[in-house]
Amino acid sequence: MNKTSPYMNPYLAGVMLGVVLFASFVLFGHGLGASGGVAKIAGAAIDLVTPAHTENSSYLVSLLRSSDNPLDTWLVFEILGVIIGGLISGLLAGRVRLETLRGPHISVRTRWIFAVLGGIITGYGVRLARGCTSSQALSGGAVLSAGSWAFMFAVFAGAYAMAYFVRKLWN
Amino acid sequence: MSPLDISASLGHVWQNVFYVLTGVAFGFALERAGFGNARNLAAQFYLKDMRVLKVMFTAIITAMLLIFWANLFGLLDARALFINPTHLWPGILGGLIFGIGFVVGGYCPGTALVSLATLKIDGMLFVLGLAIGMFLFGESIDAMRVFWDTAGNFGELTLPEVLGLGTEWVVFAVVLMALAMFWGAERVEQYFARKNKGEN
Amino acid sequence: MNAKIIGVLAAVGAGAGLLVLGQPNLHDRLARLEPELNQKIQSRQIQIDPAELLALRYEDQVGVRIFDLRSESDFNLFHLTDAQRVSLEQISEPAWAKELSPKQVIVLVSNDEEQATQAWKLLSTQKVANLYILAGGINAWIERYAKPDQKKPIANCKNDQLGFRLPSSLGSRHPAADPEPSHGPPEKFEKKVKSLGGGKRKAGGCG
Which of A108, B6, C40, C74 has a CA 20 to 30 Å removed from the CA of A64? Predict the structure, then answer.
């Protein structure tokens, strides 16, 4: 165990996260989610700018038109909470600072470009796989969904396969 | 017997309040774990800090054991829980793409939100990228709708069903697998710690 | 003892404990849910009037599947058009219940309500959605829809037995198996089938 780490012991943090996940199943009958809320907010923003486009996109129609208010969904409330909770923990630990986290050998600008690029790729994969590390890997993993376990190992496989090619970003 | 139906018992507003509170606990745990920092997350894929694997699998086995113990005692009806439907091929392809984005961008969606919450500019840009990527998916889905809807679509499928084993056997196997992975992770970290010391 | 060993022992112990104790089977789970289910049965929320079933069959928007729990001989004597015969053993198999689509209404039928109620409990425990019982069963159906010359009531009929003597094994060719909706004023009934959905929660995943 890395004693100099300013963060919580990873196993203890895992137990804490697992208890939160269990609480979500007890309270709501399903696990945690993160990407869905981003999808709803992003979709609603597109709808605001070009409402005509929404009607031509089967994806946006099913994302936004299935209820009266696409933002009145647990996904959005949950990520609001995630942001508040992250902020509280960050404030307590003195980690709230306007900064860019990056590998030691790249410029801030390079990091920004790759952050957006990584986000785009992840965002595409999330929707294709119908969920992210929270909703698929953690939540589906805990209830032993076969597809969630396949997804989880695919994530690690994709990341390890790509890691070599982007090693300059992080090392 | 849980899962509870807060919407029916306390109303829609209270349910949303509970969702926000759950999110607060979720975000708090992610930030505590160090997941608001892309360097901690990316280190997993260079085997230097196996924090991602440790937190993730500890969380999964903790929740899994709680769920199936609660089911045994009749406190929670495991059959009533949402089980992510298995769309095998889109899930695997999406997972591979997701993994690539993860190591390129340094975050996954939940951790990026925590990073954004602690004012990391890279986290904010990653979330912006997420929105763009989701939009691109929406634009291209019609061309691969059949693949997305039907490829490897097994509906609700669980590991016990795939393996033909009782749930309790699979739970036990997952616990053992996680512990073996933790043991391996500790060894790998020690190896890199020694190597770095040698270099310095 | 250090924390790491305690953690490992706790995880292995919790896993091994489940191995020893197993997971509750269908009948354990049914026993647990029984008070809740009995309450629904006694308040007659799930028993639909024959007229409602007849109306459902003429509704394009709603798919209906009828499962008949009676013996093969009763089934051969008379059954509703499109009804499928199943046994309580069959519906206790998890694989069977899993095949049922949540996007249809399922109606369980027996001679009166006894076996259908038992089946309803078993399937409700397995979280099958949109599940109903034909009120009064086949006996009420024949009483309502067979013409006087097509039914001869049996005196002293026991519980869950066919209450009518039928001329021959007509199955669904009996005129009452698929009666025409009446041309007179529509039959009045208390509507009990709710809009589709419910049952197992579908709200998870990332939207």
Answer: B6
